[in-house]
Amino acid sequence: MRGPAEGRCSPQACDWPACAQKIVCHIEDSLCSIATPQVTQALNVLTTVFGHCHGLWTQGLWVRLSPLVARLLEKDPVPASHSLVDLLLSVARSSVPSSDRGLWETLAQTLSHLSPTQAGPLALGILKLQDCPQALRTQAFGVLLQPLACVLEAAAQAPGPPGLLGGAAGDPMTVDTLLCSKSACVGLLCCALAHLGLLQPLPQRPSPWPQAPLLGAAVTVLRLCSGSAAPTSDVGGRLCAILVGCGRVQRAALDFLGALSQGAGPQESVTQVFSVLLEYLMSPESSSMVLKKAFQATLRWLLSSPKTPGCCDLDPRTQLFLRELLPVLQKRLCSPCWEVRDSGLEFLTQMTRHWGGQAGFRQALLASEVPELTKQLLQDPESYVRASAVTATGQLSSWGLLAAPASPERPGAQQKSLLVELLHVLCADSEGFPRRAVMQVFTEWLRDGHADVAEDPERFVARVLQAASRDPDWEVRAQGLELALVFLGQLLGPRGSHCPCAVALPETAPPGALAQALPEAAPPGTLAQALPEAAPPGTLAQALQVLCRVQLFEFAFRALFDCDRPVAQKSCDLLLFLRAKAALCGSPQEAGDSPNVASVEATLQRWQAGEQGQPLGYLEPGAVMAVLRSIDLEGLRDTLAESSDHVEKSPQSLLQDMLAAVGVLGENEADCY
């Protein structure tokens, strides 16, 4: 049916080719089968058809098969419910609804016949449809709200103002599912919370959105799970007994609570949200995963807090919550569980990144022991924690928030000690994660003009590149090339003018904008193609002198033949870009065929052959440019862009495999060749 004549195929199945009619008859038999696997296969085939085929003939196919599909709803239980839901949503997204309005009735009947757990995915799919009758949308939203409405009713909580959530309460089938077993209750609640969380940010979500009742329901579920709720009804007591200590529901409810942070809510509801989040962060019963979710939800609510009109600082309610939160964070950074320490550090990093300049946050943080504890975690026995501590201390240092005693004579001594300590991590840590984190922090520091880096950027870059070039972790070496690119951009011109990392940036671009102009995941060759402007000859010559002194070319040339392809690609892009800039101004004077150039080329050939021992030593700018022009960087870039298994898939490799399979060639040698 999808051949050249697809556009001319009649919607009437009786006019189809014989083979197509035979297939349809087989599907009809399968849909009428008493064997669930056979029904499932037929539904899956139809789901694929309606998902990929959009000809008029699919409308005729649905007209013929829809009565058999609807007949499945008469069975108890409904067979292959998951596959049935997939099929109905696939048909609803196709061209069928424009010709068959009966599809909406079938969807409504299916919502009524499926169990609450089975109906959830169908209800979510219906609400995501662009064109759908309002009555069906209301029914679908009610299906998603019923579990939470039952929880609110059972916990003796007022369902809030009249609306969809209140109207969804009291469904007997949902109550039975919640109370029949722990697994059924947990499954239904987790699905409802997840589906509503997915629906919340969508533009086609139902309106009005019952924000306040949903906040109340999420808080109630969390309190039932923690045992702090005191339901008075029999159903509420049974629910509390089922849910208390259930980490799966706690995680789902915290995720949903975080998603609700994007909407406004009444002050009373928001106060309850912060109260239950603090309760979970303080509770010794919270598992490491629950604490991680609690930190994430807390961050989302803090960052969505409304700003006080006419004030750039945090609002009083947020500052009050911070004063309660930081002692809890301090305690969690000392947890014996490394996952908890790690989650706390990630939370601190994100808060500092967003609020490092807010006076209220700075005051509360500096009054706590959190900065000092964070610095101590650089020595943590777990590498993941050390990596997170590196990132957190890097952020704190960028905002001047590492509050530790410093001598009056040398007020910057503490900051410098952190730089030295991070360099030690880069050179000596046995695990790759902390070293990668150090390189990312150093790149940010260089990009943003960190005070200690700005004192002597040349010395800083030389030390970092020296350590990165020897690192066994390819991601550290690749990040070293990223740092080299940032440094190169800062050398070849002022901000917004002739800068290799500033494509059409305004004069008032922020400090970090220069190196952000090109995406991190730029394809090979992007750097060389993005910036055709020529730097002034004097600027380029001075920059090359500095790059030679920090031994950037030693690092880049060695990385050019790195056994890890991403490193070689980054190096190739960097050198292509530099060569393109130099070609436009023809400076500095090339060294021609001098002994220095010949020695460098010989060393590079040995490196390419795998002999990486001999260093290049100090290079003159002219020799560097001569070597750059002699290397086939374009060819190397094309080679690196090929798939890693292109050699194994080549005809030559296939023939070699055939020869190897024969073993002793003997009299068949000529034939094999």
TrEMBL record:
<dbReference type="InterPro" id="IPR016024">
    <property type="entry name" value="ARM-type_fold"/>
</dbReference>
<dbReference type="InterPro" id="IPR038904">
    <property type="entry name" value="BRAT1"/>
</dbReference>
<comment type="similarity">
    <text>Belongs to the BRAT1 family.</text>
</comment>
<dbReference type="InterPro" id="IPR011989">
    <property type="entry name" value="ARM-like"/>
</dbReference>
<keyword id="KW-0963">Cytoplasm</keyword>
<protein>
    <submittedName>
        <fullName>BRCA1-associated ATM activator 1 isoform X5</fullName>
    </submittedName>
</protein>
